[in-house]
Amino acid sequence: MPNMLTADETTFRSRVLRAPLPALVCFSAPGCPATQAMRPALERQAARMGGLLAVVDAPDAQSIAEQYGVASSPTLLAFRHGAEVLRSVGFLPEPLLALLCDAAARAHGEYSRIWMPLEEAFEDVALLPLLGALGLGYTRQQRCVNWPSARGGRIDVLIHDERGAVSLVESKRIIRSPAELAKAAQQAHSYARAMGLPSFVVAAPGGLWVYALRGQSAALYRSLSWIELEADAQPLREALFALQP
């Protein structure tokens, strides 16, 4: 088990910032369901990296939360030698949490930044296992037929079953705003239209967004967080096949 503690304003600096071990700090609101769901994975991953796990009740440590710009629960911060090196906001399934811990272990110096896994790594540990568990086949970097450019387009993940193509996925390292989601959806929409597909998915560590094509436009059909998908992934399959003609 990792070294675990509950830190507050009086113990954060002495127990976390001065710790000789790498520290994974979870800022949380009381009773936060995402933190509760992630707690066992946090403990396992902190133990795996040989570090310290600290849970901070953000409302009771407001000055610390303000110092580090924490505004959402849960927010994960990784520290090495007293300096924040990585952070992530929101629930992460354990495979992505493992990637974050690995990145924190390699980090050197003080450079606080939002953690964003490489798209290929995100697909490897989270997206593709999810599709496999749902009994769906997939092809990565599928050439987009009927693409207007002479160079062609590449679909991140084409989803199929025994009858043929079902949908496609546009993978992103992070979606931080509605504008970023809209931009990703616009690209995926172009691919889906060219392929004659009835739907597409935008996928990121923050969740999955399923869109339905409606003539020349597309509309959000369903969004699923990773905490929802960990509890029950079937709604993703149901959404994709509900949109089949």
Poorly predicted runs: none
With strands numbered from the N-terminus, the spatial order across the biggest sheet is 6-7-8-9-10-11
Please name the CATH architecture of the largest domain. Alpha-Beta Complex
State the separation between the terminal residues, measured CA to CA. Answer: 51 Å
Number of strands: 11
Radius of gyration: 20 Å
At the first level of CATH, the class of the largest domain is Alpha Beta
Order of helices and strands: EHEHEHEEHHEEEHEEEHH
Bin the helical content.
25-40%
CATH topology of the largest domain: tt1808, chain A
Overall geometry: elongated
Beta-strand residue fraction: 25-35%
Rounded average pLDDT:
89
Q: How many separate domains?
A: 2
> What characterizes the major β-sheet?
6 strands, mixed
User: Which structural class do the helices and strands define?
Assistant: alpha/beta
What does this structure look like?
With 245 residues, the protein is α/β, with parallel strands linked by helices. 36% of the residues lie in helices and 31% in strands. It has two domains: 3-106, Glutaredoxin (3-Layer(aba) Sandwich); 119-242, tt1808, chain A (Alpha-Beta Complex). It has a six-stranded mixed sheet with strand order 6-7-8-9-10-11, sandwiched between helices. Helix 2 packs across helix 4 (94-106). It starts with a strand and ends with a helix.
